[in-house]
Specification:
The chain has one domain: Methane Monooxygenase Hydroxylase, Chain G, domain 1. The radius of gyration is 22 Å and the shape is globular. It has 13 helices and no strands. The longest helix has 32 residues. By secondary structure, the chain is mostly helical.
């Protein structure tokens, strides 16, 4: 059997002076960014797991930024597409834990002490996502105080309405009675559940055909938070499986800290409204 030559069908085979796949994606930089500090076989898994997670988070920030802008401009259909994509991104992030869980406690111990004080707790992209969604804990600015650029990035985000703030503002523009104390609150702080917001979402859910766009928005937000919660849960179980109840490398309580994060609600009224329907 003769060998197949793609050039016969017009495939480009010579790239001197032309853009190649590797050039376009910057693969030299990406694939050269892994620098294990030990000879442990499993350190490469640990590095790539976290690097790829950061790449997915970068895309999530890109999509959430666009979705928030679309809601502010009353362009709800594009926002739906972006929110659906973010949910799928977090599905990918969830699947990544399955790969990391193939690493045993013994294997992690081989290189853990070389991590120093570095920890996923310090991921500024994850913190930015939480701020964008409305979980605005100012204490989480401190791990980034040594970087003026990152501090500014996070502080700038705190000065903007969160994604959920924009969803509530949309409710008001669509005729729902959202009080000024909600619409004009201090947006640098977390949103506190409010009866008027609950009542508005309840009306949307009781009459979906009348409020279809808002109904779909509500479900897109719940779908995304569902995946986000699963990601947090998988994080907890993976950490417990690998290090048990040791303290995290960044100084947190490890599993105890992560379990506390499971209690955080991003879009509280959208979850609580189910009880009163």
């Amino acid at each position: 059997m003769s060998s197949y030559d793609p050039a016969r069908e017009g495939a480009e085979m010579a790239f001197d002076g032309k853009m190649s796949y590797s050039d376009y994606l910057g693969l030299g930089d990406i694939l050269g960014a892994q620098h294990p500090r030990t000879d442990s076989h499993d350190e490469m898994l640990f590095i790539i797991q976290h690097q790829t997670s950061e790449l997915w988070m970068r895309l999530a920030i890109h999509e959430l930024t666009a979705a928030r802008h679309a809601l502010r401009a009353d362009e709800v259909q594009p926002a739906f597409k972006m929110l659906s994509r973010v949910a799928r991104i977090f599905e990918q992030l969830n699947n990544a834990w399955d790969v990391l869980r193939t690493m045993t406690p013994s294997e992690y111990t081989d290189f853990r002490d070389k991590l120093g004080q570095s920890s996923g707790f310090q991921s500024y992209q994850y913190r930015l996502i939480e701020f964008m969604l409305g979980n605005r804990n100012h204490a989480m600015l401190r791990p980034h105080a040594h970087r003026a650029d990152l501090s500014k990035l996070l502080q700038d985000e705190l000065a903007k309405p969160s994604l959920y703030d924009e969803a509530i503002a949309l409710l008001a523009r669509r005729g729902f009675a959202i009080p000024d104390e909600v619409l004009n609150r201090d947006i640098t702080q977390p949103h506190s559940p409010h009866d008027a917001v609950m009542a508005a979402w309840a009306e949307v859910y009781r009459h979906p055909k009348t409020h279809w766009a808002l109904y779909e928005l509500a479900e897109k937000l719940v779908d995304f938070e569902d995946y986000f919660r699963r990601w947090r849960f998988n994080h907890v179980t993976t950490v417990e499986r690998v290090i048990g109840f040791k303290r995290g490398t960044g100084g947190t309580g490890g599993v105890s800290y992560l379990r506390r994060m499971l209690e955080v609600e991003l879009f509280a009224e959208l979850w609580h409204v189910r009880t009163i329907l």
